[in-house]
Amino acid sequence: MRALVVDDSRAMRKIIAGALRKLGYETVEAADGALALAALQEGPLPDLATVDWNMPVMDGLTFVTQVRANREYRAMTMMMVTTEAEHGQIVRALAAGAHEYLIKPFTPEALEEKLALLGLLPEVAGA
Amino acid sequence: MTQSTETAPLEPDAVEDEALSQIVDAMWSSYFGHVEPMLPAFEPHDIEGPVLCASVGISGARPGLVSVVVEKAGAAPLAGALLQEDEGLTDEDVYDALGEIANIVGGNVKALVPDAGALGLPGIVAAQPLPSSAARQAARLDANWQGHWLTFVVWLAAPAQAVAGHVKHTSTDTGQED
């Protein structure tokens, strides 16, 4: 399975991508929503995108909204991974089209649990 | 009477030392569990000498600032611990790591502030943080890690009700109508 990790922090991209690779994902990274959209246009479409909220150039909520407006990207699952912890923000993100929401700080186990709920754990992780 | 902020009624803050400590603990155990623990100080410790400071702003009804201040000598080891890379770190890597720490703490602090607005992007300076004059310190945590001091600090503007009450009080004292 393939994941796109969208976060403006290199440290956080490394943490998320590392956790996903341990679960069996191939990962690509983007430092903001605009770069992430460019990566989607370039293809191939990932199975999962983890999306930070607060980023320069294009924030995560705008990215989610734009992805959801494009039928070609419907097969991709989006998980917000963000410090935005208020209930209202979670509702906004889910209403915009995010499928799951993970609040930073998070443990690798929490990420794995969310992916299991989404049915997005690569088989290698359960082997 | 000329008292100003000293006599303004202060409400209990939405963010206090204990809440900040819990947020920092969660951040530390999530991303720094593989290194030696950070040891909280029992008394405030003002860092002397060169520092790096990462801050994020909070907008809304009670605008504020959340900062992490690190001894400059401790910044690279801290970034290396977060990235799990000991060598080849650039200044940009260090600023990025400190900024993300401030972002994580700031985002979780914002969730505790009533009617909070947006969280700003992290900013890094080689100086102590400089909150706005309207803000007052709401919470602080000093800690030591590998011999280096860190300070996590939250400033928030006073609750609107308290500020409004204070303004009215002052106006009355000067004989002016609101």
Protein described:
The complex is a heterodimer of chains A (127) and B (178). Chain A has 6 helices and 5 strands; from the N terminus they run E-H-E-H-E-H-E-H-E-H-H. Chain A is of the alpha/beta class and 127 residues long. Chain A has one domain (2-106): Response regulator (Rossmann fold, 3-Layer(aba) Sandwich). Chain A is globular. Chain B has 178 residues and is an alpha+beta fold. Chain B has a single domain, classed as CheC-like (Chemotaxis protein chec). Helix content of chain B is 34%, strand content 27%. Chain B has 4 helices and 7 strands, in the order αβββααββββα. Chain B has helices spanning 17-31, 72-83, 91-110, 160-173, and strands at residues 39-40, 51-60, 64-71, 116-119, 123-125, 135-145, 148-157. Chain B is globular and about 50 Å long. The interface between A and B is medium-sized, with 20 and 26 residues.
Key structural traits:
heterodimer, A: 127 residues, alpha/beta, Rossmann fold, 5-stranded parallel sheet, 5 strands, 19% strand, B: 178 residues, alpha+beta, 7-stranded antiparallel sheet, 7 strands, 27% strand, disordered N terminus
Layout of strands and helices, then pairs:
The complex is a heterodimer of chains A (127) and B (178).
Chain A lengths: L1 E5 L3 H13 L3 E5 L2 H10 L5 E4 L8 H9 L8 E6 L4 H10 L3 E4 L4 H10 L5 H4 L1
Parallel strand pairs in A: 1-2, 1-3, 3-4, 4-5
Helix pairs in contact in A: 2-3
Chain B lengths: L16 H15 L7 E2 L10 E10 L3 E8 H12 L7 H20 L5 E4 L3 E3 L9 E11 L2 E10 L2 H14 L5
Antiparallel strand pairs in B: 1-6, 2-3, 2-4, 2-5, 3-7, 6-7
Helix pairs in contact in B: 1-3, 2-3
